[in-house]
Amino acid sequence: MMPNHGQFSDASSQQLPPQQVPQDVSQPNHQEPEAIRNVMVNFIPLGIDEVELRQLFEPFGAIDSFRIVYDPHTHTSKGYGFCKYRYAYSAKQAINNLHRHPCQHKHLKVVYAKEEEARRILESGAGMIMAPNA
Questions:
Q1: How far is Cα 60 from Cα 56, in angstroms, rounded to an integer?
Q2: In the 8-state DSSP scheme, what is residue 112?
Q3: What's the pLDDT tens digit per position in 74-102?
Q4: What is the pTM (predicted TM-score) of this model?
Q5: Residue 32: half-sphere exposure toward Cβ, Cα within 13 Å
Q6: CA-CA distance, 57 to 45, in Å (whole number)?
Q7: pLDDT surpasses 90 at 40
Q8: Do 112 and 38 meet the contact criterion of CB atoms below 8 Å apart?
Q9: d(C-alpha 77, C-alpha 71), whole Å
Q10: Which residue in 27, 29, 3 sits closest to 91, CA to CA?
Q11: Phi and psi for 124 in degrees, rounded to 5?
Q12: Residues forming a β-bridge with 112
């Protein structure tokens, strides 16, 4: 124990409550429901891979996960996939900008993965908390 040189009273030597650690901004924002952060992408051309398609979605915001669904037996794309954004605002921007977007010889269909649940959340007013700063 360090000597008290008259600078602090005995009360100051009591243990202070632990400081709250700020939430790591690299972690997903779990305050916004997943239903309004997760989009489904349909009509993905067979010749495009996850890296190429992800690059199309990245300009709209931070992505927590991205995957194209593949047939387990043939290992070929089933033509659809999912992009889960960190923020609901980013998912909405991707839907607004990429739905019907031309991609090779097709047009992408980009919608909420769980459309009915997303619609209920957004209509209830419990939707997007804020637009991200970046």
A1: 9
A2: E
A3: 999 999 999 999 999 999 999 999 999 99
A4: 0.73
A5: 24
A6: 15
A7: yes
A8: yes
A9: 6
A10: 29
A11: -75, -15
A12: 39
